Amino acid sequence: MFKKFTSENQNTYQYKAHKNFTLSQTDLTRHEFIKYSTNEVSKSYYDFARINFYASSSTSDNYGSQFNIGNDGSGRNTFLNKFYDNGSIVFIPQNKFDEEIKRGSFVLTDTTTGARIVDDSDGNLYSTNATFSQSVSALSTQDNYFGNIFYNLALFAIAQTASFDGSNDYTDVTSGNYTVQYQGTSQINTYEWTCDSQPNTLNNTTNPTVFHTNGLGQLKDNLTGSNYPTYITEIGLYDDQNSLIGYAKLSKPIPKSQKLPMKFLLRMDY
Length: 270
Fold this sequence. Notes:
Elements: E1 10-24, E2 29-34, H1 40-54, E3 86-91, E4 100-101, E5 107-110, E6 116-119, E7 124-127, E8 147-150, E9 155-158, E10 178-197, E11 231-238, E12 244-255, E13 262-269
Antiparallel strand pairs: 1-10, 2-3, 3-9, 4-10, 5-6, 5-10, 6-7, 7-8, 8-9, 10-13, 11-12
């Protein structure tokens, strides 16, 4: 028994879901970049970070003044003016964040240096326990940030060479043992269908176990009483070719009313 959906019976909407992740340095890929290195790999990652995230469209080192991946035009107060000759860039695997990292959820704990690094929701990284700072301003201000996180790409760069505690430089962070915690973001598409049934429709069962085995479509003798109702146990979704594409199984059979209209709400997320 089929009944076609109308536009009034269907609804689609999206929402963001977040999942917590905790990774160690063995789960991540870190590359040190050095501007004047004789190592082509280190030099190439310097060029990669400078061109894609920090440099303007000119060939001079006028960082952050033009549109690039780092300065994406979102209007966020992302500081891109600190990019020195050496630093590091760390990549998070795509299967560990899905679409992007949630703003304001990133925490890096470096057990080798003792640094604790967080993001400010605008793409800037700063230390919450730095004892050295470049100004008397709060640690989270533009003066004291030392790197950036690019949420949609799930990578972060440490581009500051100064010391944060007198013994360890920011370039030492992520060179040893550390963990990162954050929330990955996924867009969930939700589809809803309202399945309604009037008292005079869908009153015949399709359960093959209630029919005689002779194939004539006759109910078994003990099921022919007028008090025997049809029960709804599953609701199937079919395409235009009547091929089953999904079904919902009720927690318990529901008697089909022949006196009152009935409605069932189906919801599917993916």
